[in-house]
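ok trying this again, last paste got cut off
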Amino acid sequence: MEALAEGLWGLADFHEKKGEIGKAVKCLEAICQSHVSFLPIIEIKTRLRIATLLLKHTHNVNHAKSHLERSQLLLKSIPSCFELKCRAYSLLSQCYHLVGAIPPQKQILNKGLELAASSGDGFAVKLWTCNFNSQLANALIIEGDYRSSISALERGYICATEISYPELQMFFATSVLHVHLMQWDDVSLVERAVEKCNEVWEFIQPDKRHQCLGLFFYNELLHMFYRLRICDYKNAAQHVERLDAAVKADLQQVQHIQGLITEINNINRSLSRSDLHPKERSALFQKQSQLQEQLRNITGLSSTGNDSMELPHFEKVKQRWGDKLELAPPPIDGEWLPRSAVHALVDLMVVIFGRPKGLFKECGRRIQSGLHVIQEELVKLGITDGMREVDLQHSAIWMAGVYLMLLMQFLENKVAVELTRSEFVEAQEALLQMKNWFFRFPTILQGCECIIEMLRGQYAHSLGCFSEAAHHFIEAAKLTQSKSMQAMCHVYAAISYICIGDAESSSQALGLIGPVYRIMDSFVGVREKTCVLFAYGLLLMKQHNLQEARIRLASGLRITHQQLGNIQLVSQYLTILGSLALALRDTGQAREILKSSLTLAKTLYDIPTQMWVLSVLTALYQELGERGNEMENSEYERKKSDDLHKRLADARSSIHHIELIDKVRFEVRQLHEIDIKRVISGPSISANLDIPESVGLLTPLPASSSRLVDMDTGRRGKRKI
């Protein structure tokens, strides 16, 4: 009977390599369903293999879970089989994770840890201990138990240290940093976690680092999120540059490897022909050997034997250079995000850094690139036109959440770019896309409701609908628990009230600015401080308290220039300070400041700010009696005004304009109770979506560290952290 089982196992391998997963499963199930009894160990191995195939290639999680639970029952009667028991625990944990059953997942992982603790101190035992601690930390994160999650990861780190495995130590060190970034309880703890990652990375031998591409991306992205969070944009930019260069190199490498694999496949097909001439066959064997050697040199994987590339080694190459960026070796086999998501995320980071500098052409290219990648991945997950979240396979919900969140952030940045460039119709379209995606996936994207509402405020303000803008900003503040986001929305609303201009609106603006101003030094970084100083200075100027306004604005400008490097906000600061200088009869300084502001506004294609500067310059030339400059300036201002009014008219004539500015929240169709239960365990992206960049008002760089860090990135139960 063992020979029969081995024959069916071999046939299943054959079908799997050909991509015929259904046939492979049927071969294996023939053993389980046979009327003839096989040894328990054979049935256990077979059921574990079936579960692995189902989890890897299908969405049939419940079927996999049934096989694993049966395997567990059989394993209870066998005193040994440590490896098989651990595999069963690990796979069953992944099943529970995919169906959102966290309590039974924790229970099964604790059983695995108990088994490992009673099985000695061998290398394999330590590896499985690392596996179970990693998955347990993941489950605890889902429950929001950060402290226990960090404890589990630290136990994993100790295990990795005991077996002198630096790559595995790095896996746990970066995971600890990730949890600290999500929690952000104590800045000193985050700093220590960053330092620990740097220490461990340096401990990995340089020739091995290039083999740890997944860890490299994970570590660099986490470091960048940390730098963004503390507004250290200079050092964050260095991480972006390294990441961008690594993505380009990775794409070239993947394309080269795929080309070699295709050539080898073609040669293998030719060699299978029975009518091939001996000379041709010999030449093909020689070519095959050369290509295999090239592939070995590139991938760093060794192999022996003439047929090695056709079987296990070839499969390793395809797995390693496929869509997966592994963070740790088997049996952890963890990943944070798949390769395509990492590439899209790096594109997003380039956009976030390029947008405040006015690099809109490059931003547009990266946005299109990222959206294209994400759309392709969503189609692979079965998300096509018209599909809603209740139609998703449950096991696809996790990765769908990752790609949908990335999609929304690309669209958010597109809205910001288009509003800055006064391309209001384009901004409308991107904002409507965000609304439509939110309507289709309201539970997965529930955290995006705040962002959408805030962007409606940005859109309304850009089109001069200040009352509507203030309403949407205040509504956005109600939709988030983030103190930082609430503060920013209140500042935005205050600026809209200031623009209305009457006494009541100024009073409302003061009521919003005051509480934020009093706590502005309590926030991490300086974004909130620079924005509230801008708003407070603008309000003081409206109240004719010019000297006090000048002090606040000068302070805000200095911080913005030195720490944020955001030229849109700098331009707007300079415009107000130029107006103040003119009001204070300091015409020399006013001229110098306003010309600098106009140059920056032109760089950003920011027409409203350009017109604002031009109007102040016209007043300056009138006061100085420079008739020629006044006429030239007025003519240029008129052209810009005509251009802007045409753009505004096009946007206002759209059937969607009223829908976007209307003082009514978008009504999402409520799911039935059974639908809610089905989706609720999926990745609701609701926690602490950080500040997006303001548009047309003032512009704190988004530094969306927590927004990116808190993305639920679990995949197949291996890495959510």
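PB: full thing came through this time. The radius of gyration is 30 Å.
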